[in-house]
Amino acid sequence: MELSIFDFSILGFGGFFCLVWATGLSLQLPGNTKLIVIYFIGMSGLRLVWEAYTHSGLVTQFPKLYAIPVPFLYVIGPSILFYYEKLRGRDGFTMNPIHFIPITFAMLPLLYWIPLEKEESILLIHSVTNGDWTFPYSIFTVWILGPKLSILFYSLSIALRKSGEGVLALQLLPENIRRFSLVLLFYIFCMILLDILGYVFGIRTFYRYSAWSHSIAAILVYLYSRYNPLAMLEISNAIQSARYTKSKLVGINPKEAIQNLHQLITKESYYAEEDLRLPTMANVMNMSPHQLSELINVHFQMSFNQYINHHRILTACAMLEESKNNILSINYSVGFNSKSAFNRVFRELMGTSPREYRKNPKTFLKEKSILLQKIEPKL
Prior knowledge:
Elements lengths: L4 H22 L4 H25 L14 H4 L2 H12 L13 H5 L3 H5 L4 H12 L7 H23 L5 H8 L2 H27 L2 H24 L3 H15 L8 H13 L11 H7 L4 H12 L3 H19 L4 H7 L5 H12 L3 H6 L5 H11 L4
Keywords: DNA-binding, Membrane, Transcription, Transcription regulation, Transmembrane, Transmembrane helix
Pfam family, one: HTH_18
Protein name: AraC family transcriptional regulator
């Protein structure tokens, strides 16, 4: 494979552009948003640097580096789901470990790759890039295609959800952002498909064009984000609106309902009722139990009972700090009907017993702060 300055320039520029962009964002964006966005842009940059190294011909000079980044590219697919759930407003969303099984298996081909001599590594790379499906080259071809197939799978699984929220979210976007999003999605789909076909049939032009397109797409997204800085916020709002629209909360204003719930729990102390049940609370709020359950689950990522217990324990903490009432009295004051239940839930949420908490509450400021953040209305 001859050295190609053109491939190295266009792909290398795109890669380093993404890395500089990610670095710049790390100094500007707050919290979780920062980590998610920087991860995607950074991974795009690293992938483009890898493509520059591969398609420019440098891979024949340093073939051992070819396989090392591949397992890490398998993370991109599951991360699309994670990013989407974050955009939906599910801050407490956690990934099922099953999503990371392919990443684990993607490490195995390295055991075959690492001991190879330089000439053997170059032969394997040429076989993969030229569409040789004989064994063991076919295993490595599938391995290289894995991250691309994973991205396609996760993207389509979101778009084709039975709830239809992916399609609805696009419809809820402002016209200019919707047009850009549709064009970008189609562009990326064609880019990935071209890449896959290139490797399957050994057509180098296909996966080179795909790699160039990736570089161009990154720059276009950056330019659009500068032109319309609120685009990501609009997309997030549309996804969250679609999520509510396709739920049992049709006809209910989620923000008003959350404010009402917060008022009833904190100001009117409904949490202190020992026999408080979901249907009772739903009736007070003129909602069905299913609607209230979904409202709490969607907004706070917890069940009704967990939500009430969070309020009970926070109130108990305040009473342990400010009053001299005995612990059993506090237990009943916040709505628990037994000492064992109170102690169990307190330890579960605060990591200690009520008695130990009372001795030195300042030690548990972090736990208390986390508890408060979980039930704070995010309007």
